[in-house]
Design brief:
Elements lengths: L3 E5 L3 E5 L1 H7 L2 H5 L20 H19 L3 H13 L12 H6 L6 H9 L14 H7 L6 H8 L6 H7 L5 H14 L8 H7 E4 L2 E5 L3 H19 L2 H19 L11 H10 L2 H11 L5 E6 L6 H12 L1 H15 L7 E4 L17 E3 L5 E3 H4 L1 H8 L7 E5 L4 H13 L1
Parallel strand pairs: 4-7
Antiparallel strand pairs: 1-2, 3-4, 5-9, 6-9, 7-8
């Protein structure tokens, strides 16, 4: 038989052949089996052990189906499929957990740029001597696109707008898979969306991806699902505390000159390396491993903060050094050791009085042939984009013995 059939918990049997099959066999793609899709969310949702590997296959499967529904040419279809398959190829350990570390410590190694380097054959991120061949595998099939076209598509710089929108838009194959998959494995019913309907109501019009007017409800359902999954799962305060603890362990290691190649590692390797360092990193890893997590002392909503306080916290969000100074000051104020008080933020947009509306808004093709932005067609889309997700904007956590004192002093320490 040519290729292979993989049985997926969400999409059922998926047949891999040709270029897709050869890319899945690469060490870089196989590495994704060992990176959890939802980082440390399994500490709150025990079923959330699914990996970037299965999500990437799911995104590819939806891309293949969408290509067929909207009538892409064979070359465009394969470009979208390869882009969907490889869109997460550069992810480091625990997925998005270490985003702030990439921004502050190793800017050139964030998952988007790393993904580009892997696809273009500039780097072999694995320990396998068979790595570093993705670029030549793509070229060997003779399609009418290059590895650079794939990398550009993943970075949101597609030559054809509709291809970019299918991978990075309001309704894209990445989100369609992760919302369904994450809802399934966390057991949270909010992420359920009408995939079959969505695939039927999307089309290409004047070079853009649009949704038929009759499909507006399906898009509204997806936006509600996304908004609720962000509050309920992705920014669950206990998940953020665990991620914050692991991030502090890695920050401490980097400051001491260790683990600068953490971005090459998979989840379990990072934990082992941090635990071997002793001190704060080892203690944090042990706490995460046995779920002895810090407790939330403060969960402040954006509404409960003055404009000046928001500005101060936004500066700390953007500057890791400033955030570390505040954490040290809070620890000193309550008699805790360095690293025992952590300050976490939900998405920075919440700190601003008016969250920016995303510019990648999908347009609606009305019955009379006119095209309107979704927010003009349905008030629900506007409301969802303005909804504060999640309910907290600032989180301060520590071992439970410091919680009462932190609640008393946090405002004075941070804002005086």
């Amino acid at each position: 038989m040519d290729g292979k059939i993989i049985h997926d918990g969400i999409h059922g049997s998926m047949k891999l052949t040709g270029l897709i099959f050869d890319l899945v066999k690469t060490p870089e793609f196989q590495r994704l089996r060992n990176i959890k899709q939802l980082g440390l969310a399994y500490l709150v949702y025990p079923g959330a052990n699914h990996s970037r590997f299965e999500h990437s296959l799911g995104a590819w499967n939806i891309a293949k189906r969408l290509s067929s529904e909207v009538g892409l040419s064979d070359d465009e279809s394969m470009l979208l499929q390869v882009g969907a398959l490889l869109h997460d190829i550069g992810h480091g350990p625990f997925s998005h957990t270490f985003e702030s570390i990439y921004q502050h410590y190793v800017k050139e190694r964030d998952h988007m740029r790393l993904g580009q380097d892997i696809i273009l054959g500039r780097i072999n991120i694995t320990e396998s001597e068979n790595g570093g061949r993705i670029s030549e595998i793509i070229e060997s099939y003779g399609y009418d696109f290059t590895p650079k076209d794939v990398a550009d598509l993943i970075l949101g710089k597609a030559e054809k707008p509709y291809l970019g929108q299918m991978l990075h838009g309001d309704v894209d194959v990445d989100q369609l898979d992760y919302l369904i998959r994450d809802a399934h494995y966390t057991g949270v019913a909010h992420g359920i969306i009408d995939l079959e309907r969505l695939l039927k109501v999307l089309r290409i019009h004047d070079g853009e991806l649009v949704v038929d007017e009759k499909g507006v409800e399906a898009v509204e359902g997806m936006m509600v699902a996304r908004s609720l999954m962000y509050s309920r799962v992705y920014f669950h305060h206990t998940v953020k505390i665990a991620e914050g603890m692991l991030t502090r362990a890695l920050e401490f290691a980097l400051e001491e000159g260790h683990l600068w190649d953490f971005w090459r590692m998979v989840d379990c390797r990072v934990l082992v390396e941090l635990e071997d360092l002793e001190g704060l990193p080892a203690e944090m890893v042990r706490r995460v491993k046995y779920r002895e997590l810090y407790k939330a002392a403060v969960l402040a909503s954006a509404d409960g903060l003055s404009t000046e306080e928001k500005r101060e916290l936004l500066a700390a969000y953007r500057n890791v050094k400033r955030r570390q100074e505040i954490e040290r000051a809070l620890a000193d104020a309550v008699g805790a050791r360095e690293g025992e008080v952590i300050l976490e933020f939900s998405i920075a947009d919440l700190m601003l009085s008016e969250p920016r509306l995303k510019s990648t808004e999908i347009n609606v093709l009305l019955e009379d042939g006119e095209v309107q932005p979704l927010t003009k067609v349905t008030p629900l889309a506007n409301a969802l984009k303005r909804r504060q997700t999640p309910r907290w904007a600032v989180l301060i956590a520590s071992p439970k013995e410091y919680v009462p004192k932190l609640r008393e002093v946090w405002r004075r320490v941070i804002f005086s």
